[in-house]
Amino acid sequence: MMRDDLPGRLAALIGPDHVLTGDAMAPYAFDWRRRQESRPLAVLRPGSTAEVAAITRLCAQDRVPLVPQGGNTGLVGGTVAIPGMGSLILNLGRLNRVRALDPADHTLTAEAGCVLADLQAAAAAADRYLPLSLGSEGTCMLGGALSSNAGGILTLRYGNARDLVLGLEVVLPDGRVWNGLRTLRKDNSGYDLKHLFLGAEGTLGIITAASLKLYPRPRQVETALVAVPDPAAALALLGLARTGTGDSLSAFELMPRFTFDGSRDILGREQDPLAEPSPWYVLMEAGSGMAGPLLRRQVEAVLETALEQGFVTDAIFADSLEQTRKLWLIRESLPEIGRKIGGAVHTDISVPVSRIPDFVATTLAAVAAYMPGIRPYPFGHVGDGNIHFNVGRPAGMDTAAYLAHAPAIAGLIHASALAHGGSISAEHGIGNLKAGEMVRIKDPVELDLMRSLKELLDPTGIMNPGKMLPPS
Prior knowledge:
Elements: H1 6-14, E1 19-20, E2 43-44, H2 49-62, E3 66-69, E4 88-91, E5 98-102, E6 107-111, H3 116-125, E7 128-129, H4 142-147, H5 155-158, E8 165-171, E9 177-180, H6 194-197, E10 206-213, E11 215-216, E12 220-228, H7 231-244, E13 249-256, H8 258-265, E14 280-288, H9 294-309, E15 314-317, H10 321-341, E16 349-350, H11 356-370, E17 375-381, E18 386-392, H12 399-403, H13 406-419, H14 438-441, H15 444-457
Parallel strand pairs: 2-4, 3-4
Antiparallel strand pairs: 1-2, 5-6, 6-10, 7-11, 8-9, 8-10, 12-14, 12-15, 13-14, 16-18, 17-18
Helix pairs in contact: 7-9, 8-10, 11-13
């Protein structure tokens, strides 16, 4: 079939207004950090699962690659149409309906193009809670969050995205639709197929809808900013807090002093509420389904014990929603600081929680030895072992010259993570940015199984080529 008539055939399926070419593709043509440019044949914006299926059948017949895209907030190039492949970008933003919300069942079924913050609001309006919370939640869409198995700040208590999914609707690479939108908590009637597509980054099929678990809305939330001398003290505090609150801890974020200095010097914000500077900080949050003073007393007792044992040097509670917002703004400033520095090397690693202190110390020494003046700022979800070990360029160094060292710097960090029993991707995925490392980090049998699944489900190789799996 001639490729020249492809736009017309696609327009017949979804309408000409939703087949974008030329300059109209610009909003979809770069990754989130604008470091990779897409070169698609066109950007398609279907409005239903049936339209996604029709597009996929056509592309399977003509062997035209498809790149699924949601809010395009990914950080590893998973939604980039790689130049030279002749791909189409399939943006799912028009699939944005909440199909069902059942408060009694604590479930929500929604389409892949729903913005995550809108789903959180829908759950809250029904007096329920959707605990998938990301920095990009005002932009990212459900399908992308599930396809990358996103994590976020509440993983410690509620798990990653896959832990919140009860069922999926998926368009398969041949255009068939698998309707697995079950809302059962228990179903032992065969293989649990949804887990094939969660975290698969669109390489095995296109998630078009999902049924999610909801939880009772927290009635009491306690948020505290805590100064600690080092990551080892933070780890000791984590243990005390999990035990002392009856495991009500929902977030436990580690931050270096760089957070506050960078906010002042780079962002022009004075947001340092504690009396004295500390080398490290923890932002911790606990929640309860019951209102009242009990949770505050539990957290206070934990911090008093930690002060007595030297794990904590100072702390402050948020006593209003506005104070809570301001404390979280401190943590959320870190990605913005990195962007303002320009040319930071970003990583997304995980190690066993118990090995975080040694990993941080070893890796700080490694990057400092590699380049004088380098500015590392490891931070993140220490409660679940996920550290974003980011490294800013030395002050005054040319950005391009620094980024030439990015592979070597990331390699040092990844090597340290692996040496500590960790992973080079905790919640951001593999995309095309890390696909080349899969041969090095994966057991050969595991990699062979992954390739076999890809060949079985997508024998023509049209689903998001160049992502996750390295070339054979």
